């Protein structure tokens, strides 16, 4: 599903953001990626989405060798990955329905399929009644659920959520992670970047800790070893 083989990333200014990272994430896993600011979390995400290329090493995602990916293959690859961002990135002058439908309209999905698929996904994230609302009429938690719906609507095999709860009240943050958990239970691989340890502690999942560009720890037993 995702593999990093001896991956290093050095930015043009000489910053070594990732150093010889080896990583394997299997299909259907749920993984938290944690680490201090500057640890390399965003760089890891950008290498997975092919926004950045490694300086050395090999990145495989959803069967694509990203180093060998042709420019024209990038859109097709990106459709296998759903992205959720800290700042939601909704289109402000489109209602909830259209924000989600837009993600399908840019592909060649039929009108009929869009009319079926969008309500289904909005129901999944608990926003069926908000289809006609504009983003600025929604709470942060609701806006993030729209963003999640948009990420899901293409049926990606992988969801990457980069600090998805960073702009959300703590009580609602739990709901977002819970929803990601549900999505994962249906078979979608989920990678969530966060620095909220309370949230990580509530879900007994694999936790990869980055520190200065290296994987400092990678474990499944986070809760059992950290909670008394
Ligand atoms: P995190 O997401 O954990 O905060 P980043 O991956 O953003 O970490 O950054 C890792 C390191 O790479 C930091 O030292 C950061 O300053 C540096 N960095 C990130 N992006 C760039 C860039 N485009 N150019 C130069 N340095 C960068
Ligand atoms: P149909 O059986 O006529 O396709 P459904 O009500 O089962 O109608 O599906 C409506 C829409 O929801 C379809 O676009 C379908 O792709 C989607 N859908 C249904 N079930 C799932 C599911 N478990 N996961 C993802 N999408 C689904």
UniProtKB/TrEMBL annotation:
Taxonomy, superkingdom: Bacteria
Coiled coil: none
GO aspect biological process, one term: cell division
Alphabetic keyword roster: ATP-binding, Cell cycle, Cell division, Cell membrane, Membrane, Nucleotide-binding
Pfam (any one): ABC_tran
CC terms in the record's Gene Ontology section: plasma membrane
Membrane topology, as annotated: Peripheral membrane protein
GO molecular function, a single term: ATP hydrolysis activity
ABC transporter domain boundaries: 2-227
InterPro entries: AAA+_ATPase, ABC_transporter-like_ATP-bd, ABC_transporter-like_CS, ABC_transpr_LolD-like, Cell_div_FtsE, P-loop_NTPase
Location in the cell: Cell membrane
PROSITE patterns to which the protein is assigned, alphabetical: ABC_TRANSPORTER_1, ABC_TRANSPORTER_2
Functional description taken from the UniProt entry: Part of the ABC transporter FtsEX involved in cellular division.
Family per similarity comment: Belongs to the ABC transporter superfamily.
Subunit structure: Homodimer. Forms a membrane-associated complex with FtsX.
Protein name: Cell division ATP-binding protein FtsE
